[in-house]
Amino acid sequence: MGAHLVFADESGFLLTPTVAKTWAPLGQTPVVRHFDRRDRISVISGISVSPKLQRLNLYFRLHLKNIQQQEVYWFLCDLLRHLRGHIFVLWDGGRPHTGRLIQDLSRRVPRLHLVRFPGYAPELQPG
Q1: Which stretches of the chain are assigned E, i.e. beta strand?
Q2: Local structure of residue 117 (DSSP, 8 states)
Q3: What pLDDT, in 10s, does the model give residues 87-97?
Q4: In principle, which of 10, 52, 99, 110 could form an S-S bond with 69, CB 3.0–4.6 Å?
Q5: In this structure, are residues 57 and 48 in contact, taking their beta carbons and an 8 Å threshold?
Q6: In the prediction, which pLDDT does 122 show?
Q7: Pairing mode of beta strands 56-63, 40-49
Q8: Three-class SS of residue 74?
Q9: Cα angle vertex 67, ends 62, 71, to 5°?
Q10: How far is 84 from 28, CA to CA, in rounded Å?
Q11: Which residues sit opposite 48 in a β-bridge?
């Protein structure tokens, strides 16, 4: 049996409008009405490629705060629960990926392999 490849990353979404400039009829200043919200949604997600059928799957977790080590830990636990066999997680060198909690999980679970993308590698860019 082959291994699952999971390409993972995090992102944050602010719930405030991002309009900076817009068009309006001459002499009529446009007004964007909105609530002054400081809410955000953070997501950690991974696209997996299955070894046999070569199907793509999406796994994600939503959070109301910034993604930290604990959220990454629970995401990896979800992957381990859903995917059988070896799992290679390919991701950047972000701070939540390198903490003690993540390293301990990787040592305890031999089928979990964490692979860090290099910080800067133009030679790996296609064509």
Answers
A1: 4-14, 40-49, 56-63, 87-91, 112-116
A2: P
A3: 999 998 888 88
A4: 99
A5: yes
A6: 75
A7: antiparallel
A8: helix
A9: 75
A10: 60
A11: 6, 57
Q: Are 5 and 31 in contact (CB under 8 A)?
A: no
DSSP category for residue 44: E
Cα–Cα distance measured from residue 99 to residue 116, given in angstroms and rounded to the nearest whole number: 13
In the chain, the largest separation of any two C-alpha atoms, in whole Å, equals 68
Q: Which two tokens stand for residue 29?
A: 């200043």
pTM above 0.85, yes or no: no
CATH number at residue 91: 3.30.420.10
Q: Give residue 80's domain range.
A: 4-124
Residues sharing a CB contact under 8 Å with residue 118, sequence separation 6 or more, in sequence order: 124
What total of structural domains would you count in the chain? 1
What is the pLDDT, as a whole number, of residue 127?
A: 63
